[in-house]
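Request:
You are asked to prepare a plain-text protein record giving the amino acid sequence and the backbone structure tokens, at your earliest convenience.
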Amino acid sequence: MDNKQSNQDLFSDSIEEESKISDRREFFRKTAALGVTALAGTSLFASQDDPAIMHHAPWGQKWGDPVTKNLYGMPSAYEHNVVRRYTQLLASGNYRASIAVTPIQESTGIITPNGLFFSRSHGGTAHVDPKEFRLMIHGLVEKPIVLTLEQLKRYPKVTRTHFIECPANGGQEWRGPQFNSLQFAKGFMSSAEWTGVYIKTILADLGLKPEAKWMLSEGSDNSEMGRTVPIDKVLDDAMIVWGQNGEALRPEQGYPARLLLPGWEGNLCVKWLKRIEFAAEPWYCKEETSKYTALKPSGKAIQHFYANEVNSTVVSPSPEIPWTDLQDGQRVEIEGLAWSGMGTITGVDLSFDGGKNYVEAKLKGLVLPKSWTRWSYMHTYKKGEVLLLTSRAMDDAGYIQPTVDEETSVMGVESVYHRNGVETWEVTATGEVNHVQIRS
């Protein structure tokens, strides 16, 4: 009896499932006249032969994971390719003095997840015990002090959204593109919401002597990274931060505290901070003498240039995410990022012919000072057409992104840092995307 009942139940379930599929097919027939979706969808009529539409999805027919499985959340397993990447070409002999670049082609909005944030170390990632953390503040201050992490966090907090960019972002391209990859060409940067304290707030408590014109910040990692900062920046928006995107800094981002100089080159934002000293003269540390200077054609190098200049790039399409699946006449959104260490992005122009002619792109979402800004332009794709996509950004300080010729006429091609000439991406007749450089 039980077996007969069980078979009857299975037969009934089968009839019910066939009925549901029949109902779905009838729905598609009735709505076929609606045509295709606005941008890139499949016609409703054709969907009746798509198993993903006609049948229940397997994940909807079984229990999901309990909320206790991952007490610290993890990305979907299907996003396994969205990771930071590295290359031996950009490593200084090993991967302790090296970089891991952000997949900006996969980024959305203006916030980079902490697990994908650009990482640069000079002696490997330090793992600091927060109970043993000490921050010494001394030199030309009235009341030198040593702070524990808890004492540091008692100062009034601020939260700001800013990008951090390595000054070598795009630096391998002075002579021409070296990587046919957006991630390796422009992924030496990320953007986050930072929480910490303004240094000027601490100095209001300690008292800064009038002869203090420079600040040294020093890290506690193996390299003991040291950089000097002019006092004007310190008293403007320099921060000591311990929070990133709503949680504590990750170890590779300087846990438990780092310096943040909004808009200025990432090397200045010293991680694993242990000491701040004020003096009348700069220190001329290794990273501002033998490194992080700009060699000009005259043979002289520029020192003490800090702000990352106005910049932009197309992020979609890209070599990693081409247009090979687009249909002729399909509407598609061209997307990009713009940023400036000088201020706030006020506009972005987009060229389809490598910079000969430009149209105005649309700024999207939040537009904040010294932060990433999203921009986009809706385009009708023509199969077989070759495009040279070039973006050009401008900011409220009056700066406009230069052409490659304008930049190299001043700096030559022997430099590494602070390259902000316009970037060009070729879309081939088949929709592939290549990194190219337009010269006159």
